[in-house]
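Hey Z.,

So I finally got round to the zinc ion thing we talked about over coffee. Here's the setup:
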Amino acid sequence: MRYLILSDLHANLEALRAVLADAAPRGYDQVLCLGDIVGYGGNPNEVVDLLRAQKPAAVIRGNHDKVACGIEEGEHFNDIARAAAVWTREALTASNRSYLSDLPRGPIDVGGFLISHGNPADEDGYLLSEVDALLAFEAVPFSLSFFGHTHFACAFSIAADRMTLEMLGEDQELPIDRAARYLVNPGSIGQPRDHNPRAAYAIYDQQASTVSAHRARYDVAAAQRRITDSGLPFPLAYRLEFGV
Ligand code: ZN
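And the result:
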């Protein structure tokens, strides 16, 4: 089975379209989504509709999805994220709001591995450092877990007494050693923050036991226009061209 793994789409339609076009010739059997489908970007309904049209095998909710559909109020969001969440909540159709509110909390098991939005031990927790990852490895039993939330394409791995954190470059293939344990972030489609503005995604080939990380070039200016034309805060548009 080959899984296309999508995370942190953030209502960026141009980026999601580019990822689907880039991934199609590589081939995949099923789509998985790690949450934050909406928030920040200017096309929440179009992105939810396009994701739903892929008939994903599993989708879990992100913190922005929870605030956009009213499960939470976003008290911990900064002013820009909250303004975007308020705008998104107004913009969502009833059908898409209900789709988001029905999404399960992570982590969930998908064919022998986990997917979560944040830390597998806490759906809203960030996995930024080796210590964060070490505690997650300790708290939850899994060999391989995919996560998002930080918008950095990277992989933590632990084997015997060795722990590594590797940033995943473009078209990089990560072999999954069955004797080790992994936490892999495919990176963000809609708002990458690892200084590479191209939309990030990954393909997990279960049979070959590899994860390949990819980036898709997209029309950043069009996504920026959607943000500014919608009256969303300007920094949400500006940061896209720098991938920060
Ligand atoms: Zn996010």
